[in-house]
Design goal:
The complex is a heterodimer of chains A (about 280) and B (about 170). Chain A is α+β, with helices and mostly antiparallel strands and about 280 residues long. Chain A contains six helices and twelve strands. Chain B has one domain. The chains are: A alpha+beta (about 280), B mainly alpha (about 170). The interface between A and B is medium-sized, with 22 and 23 residues. Chain A: One of its GO terms (cellular component) is plasma membrane.
Chain lengths: ~280, ~170
């Protein structure tokens, strides 16, 4: 302590300089709007650039996973194509039918911005009105799993209200017996790998490991894999059961998504919005 | 003797700040060269002054200037840097025990020592001042030019003033 004191008093000029200089800089930045704005802007710039770099790095690290999922998807598509071509060759008429009546088409989009840490997470993708994207369209993950709904659309970009959002509700069913439920995230749960199926009727028996798929009642096509139940039959206060499930979608490594275009969406909406006066 | 030094310094403070604020503030060549003569007050403070008092005086003088220039903190910071350079230069160039001159002025210390002393202090002060004022590195060439030209201007005036008040003292 004594030595420290001697050291400080010996170099007091320097320490006093540091103190006064800091105060001076502080006063400058605090009291002059120009200097303050420059400081804030440049620090924002630094932070932004750092994040950008980090993002590039992260994308590189995830390359393996993305590759795997792309390969798997390729295989899946190829097998589907094989199925289609066989149908093609046997029944020509059906081909025309299936093409014209095809209800859903998929559009691949790259995730420009993703967030998973917030209470309400919103993503941005690089497709917009130019590519025919409209608000309310469903978004699914490349391999399996759901992502969310399109929220706002600009010319070349669109935001997705992801499943990790307190207002997102997706109609799902149990794959084995087609019992309806609704998929939600949140409610004190901030784990991006978990979600809940709610509003399952009380008499239904769910088991750990049961697969949950989309019902097809909302804008999602039917039968898209959502997740597997990890904790079944959680009693709630109302007359319904709920279950906890592990999502198939890995939101933390999501880089490409598919936007589902439902050709009959507008027709369905228009039909359902015709209100009967006696209802 | 002691009170005389204080009175002289107080008068010098008022005089230099008066000249700086009411005369030199309105002067400048194409916004390139502005003299800051008030640093002479800090240069001419007596040798025996404690460091803390020197810093306080520098900071206070800077703040007074800031109040008139509407640049809160910029001059204060520059003056603090000047004080640091002053202390360092004096401790390096002079033997602390053998200093019997009252103040580091041209009359006591000679032209060579004083001009180097004034040059270093003024350059440090102006560098900090102009870079804090611009606060970015993109216009570095322009800032350096302003700084250099202002340094020359300030130094010229400081030497001029020192020669005007030159007293031949027996050494």
């Amino acid at each position: 302590m004594r030595n420290l004191w001697i050291f400080i008093s010996r170099y007091n000029a320097f320490f006093l300089f540091i103190i006064f200089f800091t105060v001076g800089i502080y006063l400058t930045v605090k009291n002059n709007s120009y200097q303050r704005s420059v400081t804030l802007n440049s620090s924002n710039e630094v932070v932004g650039t750092a994040y950008e770099r980090l993002n590039v790095f992260k994308r590189y690290l995830n390359l393996g996973i993305v590759n795997d999922s792309l390969a798997a998807e390729n295989a899946k598509l190829k097998s589907q194509l094989l199925g289609l071509t066989t149908v093609d060759t046997t029944k020509e008429v059906q081909v025309i039918d299936t093409v014209t009546n095809q209800q859903y088409s998929y559009l691949a989009a790259k995730v420009v911005k993703n967030s998973i840490t917030l209470r309400n997470n919103v993503m941005t993708i690089n497709k917009g009105t130019v590519d025919g994207i409209k608000s309310g369209m469903a978004v699914i993950a490349p391999q399996r799993g759901v992502v969310g709904f399109i929220r706002d659309v600009s010319a070349h970009l669109a935001t997705i209200q992801s499943l990790l959002h307190k207002d997102t509700k997706i109609s799902v069913t149990l794959k084995k017996n087609h019992v309806l439920g609704s998929l939600v995230w949140g409610d004190g749960n901030f784990d991006i790998k978990k979600a809940f199926v709610k509003e399952v009727p009380n008499h239904i028996k769910m088991y750990v490991g049961d697969t949950i798929v989309t019902s097809g009642f909302a804008s999602f096509p039917a039968g898209i894999l959502v997740g597997k139940i990890s904790k079944a039959n959680v009693a709630t206060n109302d007359n319904f059961l709920s279950a906890e499930l592990n999502l198939f979608t890995d939101f933390s490594t999501l880089q490409y998504v598919y936007v589902v275009k439902d050709k009959k969406a507008e027709e369905q909406k228009a039909l359902e919005s015709i209100a009967k006066p006696n209802e | 003797m002691n009170s005389r030094i204080i009175i002289i310094n107080v008068i010098r403070w008022f005089l230099l700040l008066f000249v700086q604020i009411f005369l030199l503030k309105n002067m400048g060549f194409y916004d390139l060269s502005t003299p800051f003569i008030y640093v002479l007050f800090l240069l001419l403070l007596p040798f025996g002054i404690p460091n803390i008092l020197l810093y306080l005086l520098a900071f206070g003088t800077g703040l007074t200037l800031d109040a008139f220039y509407d640049t809160m903190g910029v001059h204060a910071t520059a003056c603090v840097v000047l004080a640091f350079v002053r202390i360092s230069f004096i401790s390096i160039s002079l033997n602390r025990d053998a200093i019997d001159d009252p103040e580091p002025s041209l009359s006591y210390m000679g032209f060579q020592w004083f001009s180097l002393y004034a040059f270093l202090c003024v350059v440090a002060h102006h560098l900090v001042l102009f870079f804090l004022e611009t606060f970015r590195l993109t216009e570095i060439g322009y800032t350096l030019m302003r700084c250099g030209l202002s340094c020359i201007f300030t130094l010229l005036i400081i030497l001029l003033v020192e020669f005007i008040f030159y007293r031949r003292t027996p050494r």
